[in-house]
Amino acid sequence: MKFGHFDDIRREYVIEHPDTPLPWINYLGCEDFFGLISNTGGGYCFYRDARLRRLTRYRYNNVPGDCGGRYLYLRDDDTGAFWSPTWQPTRTELEAYSCRHGMGYSIIASQYSAIEASVRYFVPLGQTLEVWQAVITNRRSSPAQLSLFSAIEFCLWDALDDASNFQRNFNTGEVEVEGSVIYHKTEYRERRDHFAYFACSEALTGFDTQREAFLGAYRGWDRPRAVEEGKSGESIAHGWAPIGSHQVNLRLQPGESRTVTFLLGYQENPPEQKFDPVGSQTLNKQSVHPIIARYLQPDEVEKAFDGLQHYWNQLLDAFQVNTPDEHTNRMVNIWNAYQCMVTFNLSRSASYFESGIGRGMGFRDSNQDLLGFVHMIPAKARQRILDLAATQLPTGGAYHQYQPLTKRGNNDVGGDFNDDPLWLVLAVSAYLKETGEWGVLDERVPYDNQPGSEQPLYEHLQRSLRYTIDRLGPHGLPLIGRADWNDCLNLNCFSDTPGQSFQTTTNREGKVAESVFIGGLFALAANEMAALSSRYGRRADADFYRLSAQKMSATVMEHGWDGEWFLRAYDALGERVGSKDCPEGQIFIEPQGICVLAGLGATDGRAEKALASVRERLATQHGIVLLQPAFTRYYLNLGEISSYPPGTKENASVFCHTNPWIMAAEASLGHGDQAYDYYMRINPSAREAISAVHRSEPYVYAQTIAGKDAPSFGEAKNSWLTGTAAWNFVAITQWILGIRPTLDGLQIAPAIPAAWQGFEARRLYRGVSYVIRIERRGRGNRVRLEVNGAGVEGNVIPIPAVGVREVKVTAFLL
Predict the structure, then answer these.
(1) In a domain, 64, yes or no
(2) Confidence grade of residue 801 (pLDDT, cut at 50, 70, 90)
(3) Residue 814 to residues 602, 665, 676, Cα–Cα distance (Å)
(4) What CATH number is attached to the domain comprising 809?
C-alpha cells in the first residue's frame, strides 16, 4: 500500500492519508533554528541545540502517537463544530487532506465542512523563527463565521530538565502578552539573554498562555475547552505549564480567502545586555519588533520562501544525474542529498527516534556525514572539520559526542570508542579531494577546546593514526576499547561470578579485546594519509603511513581471516568473534566491506570470497543483515549487541549504514550488477510500494530494517538521522556511477548494471561544471575519456582553472 506519491518536479513528497504507519516527518531550518514537523503538524523546534535551547515541548512514546506540535483549530461558530486542519490533534475525518514535504518546508492542506485550509511552514534564511502561513477559504455557498485558534506548548529551554525537574518547573513559567504577540520568558530572570515569542498577524479576539485554562481540567489537545466553547480565557501563566494560543475571528463570504500568519521564534538580547547581574528584568522586545513586523507581511513571506527554494536548488544542482532508473534519479538528485544536509545540521541529535537530549553531535557520525555533503557546502564542511578536531583529545582520541551549542565534549559519554579518531582522517581526505584547499592542514586547532593547546590540523591527523598504533593487542590488531563502529559490540566484558558482569580493559591474562574492523579501517585511513602527506610535501610521513598500512593489512590477513570471510574481532579472553567456529554470530558485515575497500585480499582472491560469503549468508530481499546467525541469548563476552531480540538493531537487522560498504566493495571489484542490486534493496523510493511493510518515510533512509529473524521482517526504524544517508550517496555516486573526486581530479570509473547502456550527469567540482555522458561499449575493465573533444589518458580528468567541461566517456565494463 502507498500513502502518497513523489512530485519530482516540485521536489516534494505528497502524503495523501494522514494516518501514515508512523509519523512521516520533515525538517525546517538549515542554519541555527530548526524544527521537526510531521505530516499532521507534530514535532517541535529549537535554537541550535535540541537539548539546551528547546522552544516547544514534545513527548516521545506518547499516546496517541505524535501528540504535541504546531496545532491549529477551526471552529464553525454557527454550529459549534471544530476540527484540526492538520488532522491532529482532533483526528476529525476530513473531506480532503494532503501534506507536501519539500526542501525545508511543509504544506498541509485539508477541507472540512466546505472550509478549505492550507498551512505552509518554513524557516526563512538567516532568521531564528518559523513561519506558519495559514490560508482559510470558504467553499460554501453561504457566509461562514469561523474562529481560528493556534496552540503550542512552551518547553522550559533545557529539554532534559523540563522533562524531569517538575518540583521546580511547575513554579517558574512566565509569559508576557503585548498586542498579538505572546512572549515566553521563563527563567529570563535567571539567564537574562534569550526569550521566545509567538506572534499573529491579526488582531486577537482572545488568547491563552496557561495550559489548563486553554484545555480545561482532565482534557487533552483533542478537545480544548476554549475551542469547544469558542472563547479563550485570556490567561496569564504563573508557573504550571505555559503555552501560547491566539484566537482570531474570521467572517468569510462564499469563495473568500483570508491569510493569517503566525511566527514562532527565538531572540537573544544585544550583547551588552547579556549576563548582566544587575540588569533589568524587562524583556528587550524592541530588538525583535522589526523582525516580527517584517515577517507578518505577506509579500515578505513570499520573498523569504522564494529565497529558501533558491537556496535548495543551488545546493542540489551541484550533482544531478539522468539514469535509466527513476528511483536512482530521485534519490541522487533530491532526497538522498537533502537527507545528507539534514545530517550535517543535526548529526544524530533530534529526530522522532532521537530525543535531542542525550547525544548531541557525534564525532564518528559527523565525520562520516561529511562524505555526503562536502560537495554541496565545502566552506561549511571545512568549519565542521575544525569544530570536530577541536574536540579531539591530546592522546589523539576523541569524545564520542559533543554539544552543538557549546562545542564541548560530552563527558557523560566520553571517549574510548577506538575507531572514532580514524574517521577524522577520512573526512579531511574527502574535503581535500573535493576542494584542493590544502591550507586547511595549516589551521591551528586546540585539543579538547583548551586554549594554548593549538596545533595544525595536520598534527591532529597524525595523532588520530598514532592513537591506533599505540593501542595494539596481542595479535597486533587494534584494541577495540569500549566499542568500534558497532557501539553495541562490547568485548571487554567478563566475570568470575555467574550472573555478574562488569567492564574492564584487561582480562586475567593481561589480554584485551581487538577489532579486525578497526584494522581494516586503519589500513584505509593510513593509505589516505600517505597520499595527502605526499601531496603536502611530507615525504617521510607518507612513507611511514604507507608502511603502517601495509603492516596492518598483513596483520589482518594473518590473524583476521577465517577461511571464507574476515573475522570481526577477538574478545577479552582472546576468543574469535565472527568465526565459523562460533555457535552464533559467525559472520559480520562490517569487516567484509571495510577490509575490501581498504584493498585487503584484492590480489589473492580473498576479497572475492568475503563478498561471496556476504551474498550467501547475509543478503536478504530487504537488504544485507549485519550478522548471522542471530544471537538467540545474551552473551556476556559480547555485551549489548546480544541484548536485542534476533533480527533487530545490531543483532542481525539490516543495518542500512553498512550496506553501502558492501555496495562500494562490490563496485571496486567491477561487480556492477551486484552493487546496484544491493543499492535497490534498501532504496527508499523503490520500497514505496511496500510502505505498509516498510512503515517509515519512503523518501529518506532509515538506520535499520528488521532482519529475517524478526517477526516484522522488512519494517524500517530510526529514519532520517543516520550515516546511511552519506554512505549511500557515496556508494551510488562515487562507486556505482563512478564519478569520484580525487586529489588529482575527477575520476570516472563506473560499475553500472549490465542492463544500462549509459547515463548522464552534471557535477560541479572545484568551481568547474562537468557535463558527463557515459556510453557502454563492450566488455572489459577500462574507460576512454574525451574532454571538450580531446582524448585524455587514464580515467582522471585533469583539473582545469575555469569553465565548463564536456566529458564523453566510453566504458568497457565487466
Answers:
(1) yes
(2) low
(3) 16, 15, 14
(4) 2.60.420.10
Instruction: Check: CB of residue 673 under 8 Å from CB of residue 722.
Output: no
How far, in Å, CA of 460 to CA of 394, rounded?
9
| Alpha carbons 712 and 690: distance in angstroms, whole number | 13
The size of the chain, in residues, is 814
* 3-state SS class at 579: coil
Buried b (16+ CB within 10 A) or exposed e, 168-201: ebeebbbbbbeebbbbbbbbbeeebbbbbbbbbb
Residues 6+ apart with CB under 8 A from 69: 37, 38, 40, 41, 42, 43, 44, 56, 58, 88, 152
The mean pLDDT value for 519-525 works out to: 98
Say if 265 falls within a structural domain. Answer: yes
Q: Confirm whether 142 is domain-assigned.
A: yes
* Mean pLDDT score, 337-353: 95
CA pseudo-torsion sign 271, 274, 276, 279: positive
Terminal-to-terminal C-alpha distance of the chain: 37
Of 297, 312, 327, the one marking the end of a domain is: 312
Q: How does 17-49 read in b/e, with b if 16+ C-beta sit within 10 Å?
A: ebebbbbbbbbbbbebbbbbbbbbbbbbbbbbb
pLDDT in tens, 444-484: 999 999 999 999 999 999 999 999 999 999 999 999 999 99
Decide: 445 and 775 in contact? Cβ < 8 Å.
no
Q: Is the pLDDT of residue 811 over 90?
A: no
At residue 494, the pLDDT reads: 60
789 phi, psi to nearest 5 deg: 90, -10
Pairwise CA distance, residues 399 & 251, whole Å: 58
Range(s) of the domain holding residue 199: 13-312
Please give the Cα distance from 74 to 248 (Å, whole number).
Answer: 10
Domain containing 259 — which CATH number? 2.70.98.40
Cα–Cα distance between 326 and 332 in angstroms, integer? 10
The whole-model pTM stands at 0.95
Domain total in the chain? 2
Inside any domain, residue 302: yes
C-alpha distances in Å from residue 71, one per residue of 128, 242, 267, 342: 20, 15, 22, 24
Q: Write out pLDDT tens, residues 609-657.
A: 999 999 999 999 999 999 999 999 999 999 999 999 999 999 999 999 9
Cell reading at 712: 516484522
Residue 303's pLDDT band, with cuts at 50, 70 and 90, is very high
Three state DSSP letters for 16-27: CCCCCCCCCEEE
Last residue of a domain, one of 293, 312, 331: 312
Q: Which amino acid is at 65?
A: G
441, 630, 716, 720 from 707: Cα distances, Å:
43, 9, 10, 19
Is residue 507's pLDDT more than 50?
Answer: no
Question: % helix / strand / coil in the chain, to the nearest 5?
Answer: 30, 30, 40
Instruction: Give the catalytic positions in this structure.
Output: 487
